[in-house]
Amino acid sequence: MNHKLTLIAAVLAATVPARAADLVLASKDSPPLPIIVSADAPPRTRNAAEVMAGYIEKISGKKPLVMLGASSPAPDSAIWVGVQPEVKALFPKVDFDFKHPEEIVFAANEKHVVIAGRDRWDPKHMEAKGRLSTKTGMQQEYGTANAVYTFIRDQLGVRWLWPGEDDVLKQASISVASMEQHYHPQIRARAGLFTKLELGDHKEGPDMEWARVQRLQLDSMEIDGGHGFGHWWEKYSKTNPEFFALQPDGTRSPHPTPNNTKLCESNPQVWQQWLTEVEEQLRVDPTQRVFNVSENDGYDFGHCVCQDCLAKDHPDGEKFTFRWRGKQEERPALTDRQVVFANTLGRMLKKRFPDKELYVQLLAYGYSRPAPIAAMPDENVIIANVGNFAMRGKKERETPMKQHAEWAAKAKHIMWRPNLGNPAGLSWGMPDVPITQLAEDFRFAAETQCLGLYFDMFWYHWSTQGPLYYALAHLAWDPKADVAALMDDYYQRCYGLAAADAKAYWQLLERTRMEFVVEKPSPFRAFELPQKYTAELFAQAQAHLDSAAAKLISADEKFRRRLHFTRCGFEFAKLAVDTRAAMQQFEASKGKDEAAKARVLANWDRTVVMQKEFPPYAINWNATFHTPGATPGGKRDKRGEGLHPKSPLTPYTLKRMQAAGLE
Questions:
Q1: By three-state DSSP, how is residue 104 classified?
Q2: Short-list 42, 92, 661, 77, CA closest to 365
Q3: Cα distance between residue 426 and residue 192, in whole Å
Q4: Per the count of CB atoms within 10 A, which of 78, 115, 121, 272 is most buried?
Q5: How far is residue 506's CA from residue 471's CA, in Å, rounded to a whole number?
Q6: 66-68 and 35-37 as β-strands: parallel, antiparallel, unpaired?
């Protein structure tokens, strides 16, 4: 789809009366066309049809009837959701033989509209255990539901700005011209872009609904962002110690912790036990298709030194420092070893289940970030590349982008799975909004045949980072989207007459952020925020917001509400920077500067008030300013270091965070 033309069409639809040949969906002079959903439609498709009916009512004042299956006789005019027998007769020239995963189509003639897509589901298995809640209405492909949400956006002109805040252009009449549009998304695993908004992560609310209508949540490839064997030590160490990595001291002990324990990847017993576990997983959920075979975290510690495992390492691989208890050694990268392991398991999987489309997933992470030299990933191996070029400075991006391209040249399936960290206060809730750079990154990912995303992670500070999330949602659906046009539309729809001032505000913050990551190449630059986010900068940003407010004095209340939401984010950003500035004074005094300490604590008191005063979703208070340096379980809160007197930044904490790879 041409996004620039789509945006223009949406604006024109609000101002131009229907042409004689256009099909009127709803008007003040006649009842709205009924929405006819396939009789066997799954729950997510039915829900999408109800959402569309609700938006037609919001736009026109009239709500269409939603019917499950056509009446007899069928209506003379209707909106058809899903491929139904009647549809093929009404649209004889439209190809409903979907050849691509998640392919969608919508078409209109002088009497009917059809909105459909490729759907795959097993009626016996539409629920599964999620991280915190039950996944319901599960499908393997949700083509029709995503087609409906695309139609609502592109043809009805609805925008979803942030959770609970949509923008609707009210019209006396809704019409569509005769057309036919097809599309299928390249990126099939999209839910991992915002990991906390996936099905089953928590109870469904406005934030999860936002991810759904943006066509993120209902994707067609499940990807695990973590590691594959964290439970093995507890489960098998007593009965099968030979499953685990041989250490230089002759033991097969956990190192550095049980959850980080590595396997003996050349052991056939390990392979067979893995396959046994897969068989059990498929008995519980026959719809599962991807199985994680990535080694446990702690990539520089504890890898197997048995002769069979070492023989899989290519001698020409990039050299790294490996560590074991009491020993370290320079050795080649683990990439070839781990690709051989993944291929072995993938082949066993294919042999055991020849009638299923199943995959193994391998993280290209740590000492397996470089592409393999001799081993080539099989066709059913998905490489999840932890390519940390997202949101980094120019020099930081060079190596991970090169590695990503080299992996893409060798692997049939590649996904992009960056660790985001806290590059410019991202997790703290600062306006860390590299929209232009991430648009370039998505185009790069698309050019390297990327089929999936898993970002670890965004923290859902909508008042300070919302425009970035909006852009990313659209890029996940179409990585070639015209982001400049997309964001101009966003500012116009969000802020109305104040669009130019709001755009200037956000672009100022984007430029500042981009300058900061170049000037401060350290991954811990966020601790130096006060050096870049100065009083002069905040005065410029304030001037843009004040100019916007002046233009909205007599505007629709929704625009003033949205500007207030943005202002809340600005006030929070100033407080975060002031807190860090006071903490720098406190740290420099080695904890003796009582005035600096009092200033920090006063800011923390202010955040308690902010939590009560700010609109929902403005700041994620579970991610920042939520604990004075320690979690309820007693573990130190790494992401709160340097923001509270109980958790100051010290050379020791900086060294510890660097070792833990906080970014």
A1: strand
A2: 661
A3: 17
A4: 115
A5: 13
A6: parallel
